[in-house]
Amino acid sequence: MRNRFKLIINNKFLKKENFFVKKELRIILNLYAKKVSSGDWKDYGLTINKREITFDIYQRASEKPVIRISKNLNPKNKSEKFYILDANGNIINKSENLSVLINRIEWTGLKLVK
Asked: Closest by alpha carbon to 55, among 67, 41, 42, 64?
C-alpha cells in the first residue's frame, strides 16, 4: 500500500499557529541584526515545544540565553501571547502584539550581570 501525503496551503479551517509567522520572525530578526551589528549579541537558537516557541539570544557561546522572546501557543489571556524573559526566567514584559512589545523595551539597558 502506498502512503499519500496531502499538501494543504492557506486552509482557512486550520488556523493553529505552531511557529512564528513570517511577520513576527522578521520583527525579531531585524532586532537581532541591529544588536549583532552593535556587538551586543552573538548567537541565537530556537526552542520549540507544545506550549511555546522561544527565540533564545546568547551574548557569548554560553549554555544559558541572555534574553528569550517567547510566543505562547495557548494563552489564557490575550496579553500573554508574547513575552520577553531575562536570563533567570523572569518575565520582563508581555503583550498581545510583538512589535509593540519589542518597541516598548529599552534594549540598551539590558546587560548580563555576573
From this structure: 67
